[in-house]
């Protein structure tokens, strides 16, 4: 009899873990960087590689760092939302082009529009690692003091802009 009980118990425990896992939201992975200084970097600008960008240039401003790539399907879904948000001038948006080929990224922006103040090229993905990027797209809200205040994992949606990003940006602008 015990020959059948232990596999049944193991199966029930496994189903319990699976059921619990299905209640979790993968877009709500906690970030250890929230309320911590945004990691510093200096990267070449995508459009002008002879020029660089560093987050220190944004001190005193609330801004978004949007991690994207031309090979990312979810980035294509998100892009109209990011572009529409950029047109409102509510917040400057800097693109972090992640593990991409420069020419392909530039062509992608030419085809789909470019709402970024600028994009930087993280071809090796080192800055993405420093920011704890799980995958693209991801978006970070960075406050005037250079602290990461929010991390959005996955494609930004209209409802995320309306219900989360814009209220937080308005609060941080005060």
What features would you describe in this structure?
Pfam families: Redoxin. This is DsbE family thiol:disulfide interchange protein. One of its GO terms (biological process) is cytochrome complex assembly. There is one protein chain. The protein has 174 residues and is of the alpha/beta class. The protein contains 5 helices and 7 strands. It has one domain: Glutaredoxin. Strand 3, helix 2 and strand 4 form a beta-alpha-beta unit.
What characteristic shape results from the CA principal axes? elongated
Structural class: alpha/beta
Radius of gyration from the alpha-carbon trace, in angstroms: 20 Å
- Main-sheet strand order equals 5-4-3-6-7
Number of helices: 5
Architecture, according to CATH?
3-Layer(aba) Sandwich
Mean pLDDT: 91
In helices, the fraction of residues equals: 25-40%
How large a portion of the residues is in β-strands, by DSSP E?
15-25%
CATH class: Alpha Beta
Helix-strand string: HEEEHEHEHEEH
- CATH superfamily (homologous) name: Glutaredoxin
What would the keywords be for this entry?
two-stranded antiparallel ribbon; elongated; Glutaredoxin; 18% strand; single chain; 7 strands; alpha/beta; 5-stranded mixed β-sheet; 174 residues
List the SSEs and their pairings.
Layout: H1 2-23, E1 43-44, E2 52-53, E3 63-68, H2 73-87, E4 93-98, H3 102-112, E5 118-122, H4 126-130, E6 138-142, E7 148-153, H5 158-173
Parallel strand pairs: 3-4, 4-5
Antiparallel strand pairs: 1-2, 3-6, 6-7
Quickly describe the structure:
The chain has five helices and seven strands. With 174 residues, the chain is of the alpha/beta class. Strands 5-4-3-6-7 form a five-stranded mixed β-sheet. A two-stranded antiparallel sheet has the order 1-2.
């Amino acid at each position: 009899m015990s020959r059948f009980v232990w596999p049944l118990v193991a199966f029930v425990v496994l189903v319990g873990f699976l059921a619990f896992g299905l209640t979790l939201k993968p877009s709500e992975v906690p970030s250890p960087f929230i309320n911590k200084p945004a990691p510093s970097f200096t990267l070449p600008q995508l459009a002008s590689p002879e020029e660089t960008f560093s987050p220190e240039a944004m001190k005193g401003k609330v801004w978004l760092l949007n991690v994207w790539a031309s090979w990312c399907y979810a980035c294509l879904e998100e892009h109209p939302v990011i572009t529409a948000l950029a047109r409102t001038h509510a917040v400057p948006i800097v693109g972090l082009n992640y593990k991409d080929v420069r020419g392909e990224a530039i062509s992608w922006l030419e085809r789909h529009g470019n709402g970024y103040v600028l994009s930087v090229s993280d071809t090796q993905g080192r800055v993405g690692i420093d920011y704890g990027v799980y995958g693209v797209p991801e978006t970070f809200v960075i406050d005037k003091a250079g602290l990461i205040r929010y991390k959005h994992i996955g494609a930004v949606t209209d409802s995320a802009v309306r219900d989360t990003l814009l209220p937080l940006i308005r609060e941080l602008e005060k």
